[in-house]
Specification:
It is built from four helices and seven strands. It is globular. Helices cover 28% and strands 40% of the residues. The protein binds coenzyme A.
């Protein structure tokens, strides 16, 4: 990974995120960014390279001063270290003593391996979270 800048999201980034990144025109992604735009509880960090957005992570502050939830993480090109950079930024943001949780589809092997490599531990399993979609829950204490 070269020259990738990790920075906070700005409203001007929305067009590129929704219409030019992989997974473009995803309604779900659009809904998540409405939360980032409208609520102080949601923070987004971006990976930018040569003015192109290469990835993002959205974190929700659950409001007790300790607990945070990763809503979504996505990169344009996998296995180049951008996911790791984004998660490290989240760790800096949440700071020591914080607790981070997330859920991932049980068939999303790449993400499961990624989160486990980042130090998250499996904490639960929900069958039928949505129709035809089971989830594993992960967490980490910093
Ligand atoms: C999950 C995701 C963000 C990971 O980002 P990434 O940039 O590919 O991950 P990195 O390159 O930083 O990987 C860091 C480490 O995680 C582990 N890892 C990541 N992907 C892996 C895979 N497919 N298999 C095995 N280990 C993996 C490795 O230990 C890797 O380190 P290494 O490459 O030095 O061996 C990416 O796969 C993605 O965008 N997936 C689609 C969206 C998604 O499903 N998001 C999760 C649910 S919100």
């Amino acid at each position: 990974m070269q020259n990738v800048l990790i920075r906070e999201y700005k409203s001007e980034d929305l067009q590129q995120i929704l219409h030019e990144m992989n997974g473009k025109n995803s309604k779900r992604r659009g809904d998540k960014f409405k939360l980032v735009e409208c609520s102080d509880a949601f923070t987004c960090f971006l990976a930018e390279d040569d003015s192109k957005i290469r990835g993002f992570v959205i974190v929700e502050d659950l409001g007790d001063g300790v607990s945070f939830y990763i809503e979504q993480i996505n990169v344009t090109e996998r296995r180049t270290g951008i996911g790791r950079e984004l998660i490290q930024k989240v760790f800096e943001f949440v700071v020591e003593g914080g607790h981070i949780s997330l859920c991932v589809n049980t068939d999303n092997d790449d993400s499961i391996k990624f989160f486990e490599a980042m130090g998250f531990q499996r904490s639960g399993h929900t069958e039928g979270y949505r129709r035809n979609q089971d989830k594993y829950w992960y967490e980490i204490d910093l």
